[in-house]
Write a structure and sequence with these properties.
Blueprint (H helix, E strand, L loop, with lengths): L1 H24 L8 H22 L3 H25 L5 H15 L1
Helix pairs in contact: 1-2, 2-3, 3-4
């Protein structure tokens, strides 16, 4: 029961995070510099794969995409912070790190 609640909370977190990242990309007249767009697009794709992995209980994919998401955040953190300055990127990274501890 506790494990199910934990998974559900993470699933809801990722859904809301993905939705916010996707919606912020659709601003009319808004263009991002190439590097910003590259990292944001990579992270969006990684979060979408994480969402599918959680939906289908694919532990290998959860592990793989959690590693990939952290790598993208570390590599493109400065650019991502410019795009989404109000996101708590450290907290997002901590949540993903918990995936690594639990699923890898």
């Amino acid at each position: 029961m506790l494990l199910t609640r934990l998974i559900l909370k993470r699933y809801i977190f990722y859904l809301s995070l993905i939705g916010t990242l996707i919606v912020s990309n659709g601003k009319v007249g808004y263009t991002m510099p190439n590097n910003n767009y590259k990292y944001k697009a990579e992270l969006d794709r990684s979060f979408e794969l994480l969402e599918k992995a959680f939906r289908y209980d694919n532990i290998d994919l959860i592990c793989e995409e959690s590693k990939n998401s952290i790598k993208i955040i570390k590599k493109g953190g400065r650019f991502l912070r410019n795009i989404e300055p109000f996101y708590d990127w450290e907290e997002i990274e901590k949540v993903i790190q918990k995936n690594l501890e639990e699923y890898c």
